[in-house]
Amino acid sequence: MDLNALGACFTTPACVVTQATSGLIVGMLLFLVAAGVTLIFGVLKIVNFAHGTFYMLGGYVAYTALNLTDSYTLAVLSGTLAMALFGILFERVLISRVYGSNVLMQLLVCYAVVLIFDDLVKIVWGPEFHAMGMPPAFQVPPLFIAGGVVPPFYAVLIGIAALIAIVLGLGLSMTRIGKTVRAAAINPQMVSALGVNTTALFAIVFAVGGGLAGLAGALAAPVRSLSPGMGFSILIESFIVTVIGGMGSIAGALVSALVIGMVRGFGTIGFPSFTDGLIYIVMIAILLLRPQGLFGRPS
Amino acid sequence: MKDRMKGRSALRDAAFAVISLIVVLAIPLVHRSPAFEDFIIRLSAMALFATSLNLLVGNTGMVSFGHGMFYGLGAYAFGLIMQMTDLSLIVAAMLAVAITTVAALLVGAICVRLSTDYFAFITLAVQMLFYSIIISWQSLTGGDQGLRGGIPRREIFGFELASQLHLYQFCAIVAVLGLLALRHISESPFGQTLRMIRDNENRASFLGIVLWRARVLAFTIAGAFAGLGGVLAALFVSGAYPELADWPNSGQAIFAVMLGGINSFLGPVLGAMILLALNDVVTRFTEYHGLVLGIVILAFALGLRRGVLDFLRLAWPGRAR
Question: Sorting pLDDT into bands at 50, 70 and 90, what band is B1?
Fold first, then answer.
């Protein structure tokens, strides 16, 4: 623990900017993954333990697409769309068979998918770490804000994630399909009785959730290395985000993802070896004081 | 009449335990196979771990994602006591289980008031906090390298635990005694109470049962037996590793419980056996054992829709467990 270093950082604008930026990208990536988890849980009451796999596959698909096309835009699009499709397949082929059965049965199915795809990734891309590297368009000198270093790619990543947060929030509250999704979260039988095709609706929810995770994987690929099993750690963190924010709440996911991002960003200076522990303490405290999470409705 | 039946079923359980123990102990006398003996040693640790978890999952309907914490705590406590003191093995093991019991009581008292989903998440969070402490408290635990330097395998009741055969016999006896105790608990009035809470907590509450007290007690007992399993695990690897308390390890126990069957007492033992055997056999043929394990799990989950023993009991309803 090094509180002096943390104090010194808070008094230097350059350090604050640098750490806040790295905290922001951690938080924004987490938000993209957790938004899918929370959306799927909110509507389907399924805790998707395979969501980290979507993130991992999104990264790998983007990696291959970049190698083939040399266009990072296409890479991000293909990672996102591939995972949206994968989400539909996953829901139709596997998850739809365990609706209404024991939570543990759903967990078992998801875990099997995690195991299978971790190994498939090893077979297709090899067990070693891959670095995608910064796309050529972003290989430019970094921006300096108040003396802190901000690579342009970080700024773009944060911008895209913020845009997604706005689109998702407005889409859920304003559009017809968003309203239907919210209604289905409260009473799926009633929505179905009113003539909405809930089967398609559930598949769409999984497509959106999967697409967001794929997008996060594709956006993370240039700044983090790719490896089989990379979905595991982001999965745990996105659960923490979901629980702290309130299960089913997109706004809650955004706020708590940013909080966790900041704890990570500044925690690496203050408590390098106990950052994780700090996050778990926050989670335990929230669960004890407000089990439904910051933005959740009490059940 | 009822008492006599109960006495008889306790007798039957004990007889079953003695016979299984005799068979397991007799095998090395006929044929020595280090691989098989290793398997039984690991199985005894994991069987206690999984069966104790099922006291929560199957009996009480409490899905804990953090059971690995107590397995890891048992292993670390035992390893550290053995390394730092000259206490005899049995005292060290009892102390380790006692420490785990107290920890489970504290964690349980905090966690059990939360409802199902949140209970799962808070147990997971507490376990991960424990895991982070192990990783960051390097001077005591050795951090991510684990507790090294070996655990002295002192003699106990004439068992020379440095010998594989004696370790095998010791672990088998401890595991069978532990399972018998768990069986006794799950068949006792207290065990029946837990099942009533699982099936209808409001009714149990109306009948005057203090729900949280029964749940804390179940959580504590489960933690204690997981700690005992951790002691055996520490003896086998002659150390303790953070992975024992990490969440994939809790996951393993949940899968053992699910594969074997949550409504059969011996389900988790069978599940642990299947999981360990799959690991051993598959790793011999391919490095992609996750792929094979995943497909097998999918086949079980979507094909049987319940654990193996539960499935068999449904298929032949005449047979009791």
Answer: very low
Q: What is the mean pLDDT of residues B19-35?
A: 84
The 10s digit of each residue's pLDDT in A138-186 is 777 777 777 777 888 888 899 999 999 999 989 988 898 888 988 888 8
Would you kindly state where each structural domain of chain A is located, as residue ranges? 3-132+141-289
And the tokens for A105?
A: 């049965």
The pLDDT value recorded for residue B7 is 67
Structure confidence by residue, pLDDT tens digits, B235-247: 888 888 888 888 8
Pairing of strands A143-145, A148-150: antiparallel
The first and second tokens of residue B259, run together, are 């594969």
CA distance B81 to chain A (A): 25
Instruction: Give me the residues of A, 91-150, that contact B with CB < 8 A.
Output: 94, 97-98, 101, 103-105, 107-109, 111-116, 118-120, 122-123
- Inter-residue contact A34 to A248 (CB < 8 Å): no
Q: Could you tell me which residues come within 8 angstroms of residue B147 by beta carbon, excluding any fewer than 6 positions away? A: B76, B79, B80, B83, B141, B239, B240, B241
For the stretch A19-32, pLDDT in tens is: 888 899 999 999 99
Give me the domains of chain B, ranges plus CATH numbers.
Answer: 2-248 (1.10.3470)
Residues forming a β-bridge with A143 = A150
Q: Would you give the DSSP letter of residue A29?
A: H
A3-132+141-289 architecture in CATH? Orthogonal Bundle (1.10)
Predicted confidence (pLDDT) per residue in B66-79, tens digit: 999 999 999 999 99
The Cα B104–Cα B218 span in angstroms is 10
pLDDT at A51 over 90: yes
Q: Is A39:A209 a contact under the CB 8 Å cutoff?
A: yes
> CA nearest B262 in A: which residue?
A104
Q: Nearest 5°: CA angle at A223, between A220 and A227?
A: 70
Chosen from A276, A281, A286, A299 to mutate, greatest number of chain B CBs within 10 A: A276
| Residue A272: both structure tokens together | 């390098």
d(CA A196, CA B220): 48
Predicted ipTM of the assembly = 0.81
At what angle are helices A72-93 and A198-220 packed, to 10 degrees? 140
